[in-house]
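chain below, 140 aa
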Amino acid sequence: MIESQRPSSRPPRPASPLETAKLCAAAALDRKALDVVLLDVAGLSGFADYFLLASGRSTRQATAVAEQIKRTLKKAGVRPLGAEGLRQGAWVLLDYGDVVVHVFHQPVREFYDLEALWGDAPRVSLPPGELAGLLPNPEP
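prediction:
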């Protein structure tokens, strides 16, 4: 196969904060993240439109989930404004401006309970079929 005829391994660049958040969710689920929740905080926050919350069974898995999100978004042409906690993996924060991603080791997530803290924020539906279609097919 000629190099230029290969299918793209890059997701398209997100056109909106919601598309960015959903691409982050798809990447998190690709690494088997647990309890992925998208909160619409636009009406409650002056610094972000969406919070994506996800968990890992261990700090290593939480770090892997966060790294997969960073890698996927980078391929789509989006880089984080900041990233914290990648070395420890207990609570990783990725700041994409209008989208803030929180990846926790499960016990840390339960302790901080951001879902309760942001309890007035509506949850955004994340249909698995729709999310799976956001990631390019893996190369053979």
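The longest strand covers residues 34-40. Residues 1-7 have pLDDT under 50 and may be disordered.
thats it, cya
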